[in-house]
Write a structure and sequence with these properties.
Pfam families: PPR, PPR_2
InterPro entries: PPR_rpt, TPR-like_helical_dom_sf
Number of helices: 16
Structural class: mainly alpha
CATH topology of one domain: Serine Threonine Protein Phosphatase 5, Tetratricopeptide repeat
CATH class of one domain: Mainly Alpha
CATH architecture of one domain: Alpha Horseshoe
Keywords: Repeat
Family: Belongs to the PPR family. P subfamily.
Order of helices and strands: HHHHHHHHHHHHHHHH
Strand content: under 5%
Number of strands: 0
Protein name: Pentatricopeptide repeat-containing protein
């Protein structure tokens, strides 16, 4: 009960706070930071202190919409006024965006502060730091961090692979891809797309040899998958050399052949790529083919009746 006799119910107040937080999150997500700020101010005016979830949403929104300085000011205000509320989730947001912006020195300072406060970094935070180091050419430092991680996961490997591809070192990235599989970390669709873009470029490799020309693979594969109209449109664009070749949709290409038949096709493709010395590409396609060949039977398998 407050000073003038009104009684508050905790569960109702909690719902109000959650409502404010979801509004802030929603407005930040669509880039409407003006409305998000209005809700934030309204929340404060109503006597509610924005919790860490609201704070993180606002912070992410500012960074995401290129209002970096404002985001850092908000983070600094939290450091000064509510240090005890700062935990891994907030440090994670700040370190991730500092690394994305190439501010690796500042990211390291925030990381060190986090560790001094006894907060243990998770693999997602370490993955961001690894990407930041590699993209700045500090590859040895990044490998040192990876070697000290007891159980590296997708966040760690993706940070390393993405950084190596940015340095235009696709062969080294593919070797890490092989190591990742050996250690039981299964690649995702994003892993394959990153590696293909690293080897072939975002628009697909162009060459006189059909074995190396990715257009040939795409068009032939699309026709085989019953997507002849799409293949026809793509060929028409290729024939008009006065136009810039559109960005190749690796995601769609892999999706078309996410089945047992695709698995066979990718294995044949891998053999042909090995014939012309493209072993890295061959291993990428071969692994994807294996994944597709073993996944389909599991989908169609019916449950055995239990006695």
């Amino acid at each position: 009960m407050n000073g003038i006799g009104y009684e508050y119910r905790v569960e109702v107040l909690n719902k109000v706070v959650k409502f404010f937080v979801w509004l802030i999150y929603g407005f930040c997500d669509v880039g409407d930071l003006i409305e998000a700020s209005k809700v934030w101010n309204l929340m404060v005016d109503e006597g509610f202190e924005p919790g860490i979830n609201a704070f993180n949403a606002m912070l992410e929104g500012l960074f995401k919409n290129n209002r970096f300085d404002e985001g850092l000011k908000l983070f600094q205000s939290m450091r000064v006024k509510r240090t005890e509320d700062l935990w891994l989730s907030t440090y994670q947001v700040v370190i991730n965006w500092l690394c994305k912006k190439g501010k690796i020195g500042e990211a390291h300072k925030v990381f060190d502060e986090m560790q001094m406060r006894g907060i243990k970094a998770d693999n997602e935070t370490l993955g961001s730091l690894i990407f930041g180091l590699v993209s700045k050419g500090r590859v040895r430092e990044a490998y040192n961090i990876v070697e000290r991680i007891e159980k590296p996961d997708m966040n760690v490997y993706h940070g390393m692979i993405k950084g190596l591809l940015r340095l235009k070192r696709p062969s080294e990235a593919t070797q890490l891809f092989r190591e990742m599989i050996k250690r039981g970390c299964e690649p995702t669709m994003h892993t394959y797309i990153m590696l293909l873009q690293g080897h072939l470029g975002r628009r697909g490799r162009k060459g006189e040899d059909p074995l190396v020309n990715f257009d040939t693979i795409f068009v032939g594969g699309s026709v085989k998958a019953g997507k002849s109209l799409e293949a026809k449109k793509y060929v028409e664009k290729m024939m008009n050399r006065g136009l810039e070749v559109p960005r190749f949709d690796y995601n769609r290409f892999l999706h078309y052949f996410s089945n047992e038949e695709g698995g066979i096709m990718f294995e044949v493709m891998a053999e042909k790529l090995r014939e012309v010395g493209l072993f890295d590409l061959a291993d990428i396609f071969s692994r994807y083919g294996e994944k597709m060949a073993t996944r389909e039977p599991r989908r169609n398998r019916t449950l055995e009746p239990q006695e």
